[in-house]
UniProtKB/TrEMBL annotation:
InterPro entries: MFS, MFS_dom, MFS_trans_sf
Keyword Transmembrane helix among record annotations: yes
Major localization class: membrane
Domain Major facilitator superfamily (MFS) profile per the UniProt entry, residue ranges: 12-397
UniProt keywords, alphabetically: Membrane, Transmembrane, Transmembrane helix, Transport
GO cellular component entries: plasma membrane
Name of this protein: MFS transporter
Organism: Mucilaginibacter conchicola
Length: 405
């Protein structure tokens, strides 16, 4: 088997960065097509939203155990097999007219993407150390944020020109090209596999989840990203059915949201040396101010533009907070990078899938006011978690604690 060495380390890292956005593309590229899918498949709005929720749940749950598998059996071959299978699942979606078949394929895609993502995130822990490792892991979520920027924007045009199945053709082509590049240039990054012992794996999971600051981080990440998913689930119907714009406009709206998310992540990278709790607390307070302003000004406007102003501001701050805590959690246990990366992302997505589907369905988001209410609920919950975190960090710590740094 070919391994990543000094000679191909840089090209492998570049390919990993190119592949990291695939999860975001798999989630977001077809968002502007939601209304068209409802009509073409003869199904309900809730069923089309459920295709995203099923993916999120599968993606999240899979990452909880995928990390231990790739720590035991290696990253490279599993990643290659997952890319090949992902290509096939997209072809099945293109050929079917059954939303139930799409449900199954999306569940399978969540599992496959989890293997790809955990494998590629682990590469930076496996082959880099010290400040370079922190630099690359901090850059991970910034690069990942490129998908929410590009995917719905691209999806809007694909829907407008070719209809909704073109989105899944795109995903198949993307994965196939990356499969060829990985075969040619990349390799295994795990120098020494760990024997798979269920008891040992379970104990590692218990220790990580039982580490309070790490566990709080999973909840904060999930609540934060719920803002983006709620927007993705609700915006197409608001923009296309209420305001009667085309899917291209949905793509532009998602592009604005994605750029805000990306810029927020970049700002957090720039401020990486600033105090951890101060950054999170101040950002959460400003988020709350914007969300309440969005709610109280709802009666003054009946347009997509003021909604997008507040969405952009809130998603910028969300990207800022997400990147801070994602970097913190990802580097918390470097000796078990696959497991910790899987729990961080997987646990966050489980929280996201629950709150995003619950709020989008319960609030029936159809205007600025209901959007604002969903954001306020999430921001208040994040604020409560940060209060618990501050109290925990200010506690005297016992001498012997489980730490990975």
């Amino acid at each position: 088997m070919r391994y990543v060495t000094d000679s191909n380390r840089n090209i492998s890292a570049i390919l990993a960065f190119i592949l990291i956005p695939i999860s975001g593309f798999a989630m977001d590229v077809y968002v502007p097509s939601f209304p068209a899918m409802v009509q073409d498949l003869g199904t309900s709005v809730s069923n089309v939203r459920l295709t995203m929720t099923i993916f999120l749940i599968s993606y999240g749950v899979s990452q909880l155990f995928v990390g231990s598998i790739i720590d035991s059996y290696g990253r490279y071959k599993l990643c290659l097999a997952s890319l090949a299978a992902f290509v096939l699942t997209n072809i099945v979606i293109v050929l079917t007219k059954s939303v139930e078949v799409i449900f199954v394929m999306r569940a399978l895609q969540g599992f496959l993407i989890s293997i790809i993502m955990v494998s590629k995130r682990s590469l930076f822990i496996d082959v880099f150390e010290g400040d370079k490792q922190k630099h690359y892991t901090s850059l991970l979520s910034v690069v990942w944020s490129a998908a929410p920027v590009i995917a719905p924007f691209l999806g809007g045009y694909l829907q407008h020109v070719f209809a909704w199945r073109a989105n899944f053709y795109f995903l198949a082509i993307y994965a196939f090209v990356m499969l060829l590049l990985e075969l040619r240039y990349s390799g295994e990054t795990l120098a020494k596999t760990k024997p798979f012992h269920l008891g040992s794996v379970v104990n590692t999971y218990k220790k990580m989840i039982g580490t309070t600051d790490f566990a709080y981080g999973i909840v904060v990440l999930g609540l934060s990203y719920s803002m983006a998913i709620i927007f993705g689930m609700s915006a197409p119907f608001l923009i296309e059915n209420v305001f009667h714009y085309s899917p291209v406009v949905t793509g532009y709206a998602a592009l604005s949201s994605g750029i805000a998310l990306l810029l927020g992540g970049m700002l957090s990278k720039y401020m990486i040396a600033r105090d951890f709790m101060t950054k999170l607390t101040v950002a959460n307070f400003i988020q709350g101010a914007f969300a309440f302003a969005m709610f109280f000004t709802a009666g003054l406007f009946n347009s997509i533009f003021p909604i997008m102003f507040f969405v952009v501001a809130l998603h910028f701050l969300m990207g800022f907070m997400y990147n801070i805590y994602f970097t913190y959690c990802l580097t918390r246990f470097p000796e078990s990078a696959g497991i910790s990366g899987g729990i961080t992302s997987g646990g966050g997505y489980i929280v996201t899938s629950f709150f995003s589907y619950l709020l989008a369905s319960a609030l029936n988001i159809h205007n600025q006011e209901t959007f604002a209410i969903s954001y306020i609920i999430l921001i208040v919950l994040i604020g409560v978690m940060l209060l618990f975190l501050r109290a925990y960090l200010n506690k005297p710590k016992p001498v012997n604690t489980f730490k990975g740094d």
